[in-house]
Amino acid sequence: MESAHIEAPLFDFLSECGIATQTYRHAPVFTVAEAKAVRAADPGLHKGGHAKSLFVRDKKKRRALVMIGEDTRVDLKSLAPQIGLGRLSFGSAESLKKMLGVVPGSVTPFALVNARENAGSGEPLVVALDNQLMRHSMVFFHPLHNAATTAITPEGLRAFIKACGYTPIELNLSQS
Questions:
Q1: Tens digits of per-residue pLDDT, 120-176?
Q2: Long-range contacts from 5-10, C-beta under 8 angstroms, 24+ separation
Q3: CATH topology for 2-175?
Q4: What confidence tens digit (pLDDT) does each residue in 53-87 have?
Q5: Of all helices (H) and strands (E), which one includes residue 2?
Q6: Can you tell me the distance from the alpha carbon of 151 to that of 140, in angstroms, rounded to the nearest whole number?
Q7: What DSSP line would sit under 104-123, residue for residue?
Q8: Fewest Cβ atoms nearer than 10 Å: which of 23, 31, 152, 162?
């Protein structure tokens, strides 16, 4: 199974950090609507905050990974100053693969496991969390591929991000 190969280093790292997660397997999903349809059939996926992750960049090629609630609409123009970047656009698939080791449709904070060597040096990356999303008891993200969803507590997610060498900023992105 290709996805097991992709996610193994992530789950090994989470285990080393003592961070508990639970993963739910499903058919690959590419949109929020597809994820909601899969979730309707699995009671384990009904609790908590489901998220989408945005990989964005400004004209100076500074990048950010932004996690928001799946139904949250964000105005990139108003988001940019909140995360300390210039005018934003979405990062390219090539840049996403190079920096985080994932492909479009699989953007996730868990991809920071692949960017640990870049933390603090190399290409800077801003990591931002929507504080509305982080109020849930559990938050859900893909584990480096879109054929599964992994639940983690907000505290566990913050600890994971810090263990990868990044300091997340929390913003009220729901009001962007």
A1: 666 689 999 999 999 999 999 999 999 999 999 999 999 999 999 999 999 986 554
A2: 6/144, 6/145, 7/143, 7/144, 7/145, 7/148, 9/113, 9/114, 10/110, 10/113, 10/143, 10/144
A3: YbaK protein (3.90.960)
A4: 999 999 998 999 999 998 888 899 999 999 999 99
A5: helix 2-16
A6: 5
A7: TT---GGGGGGGGGGTTSSS
A8: 31
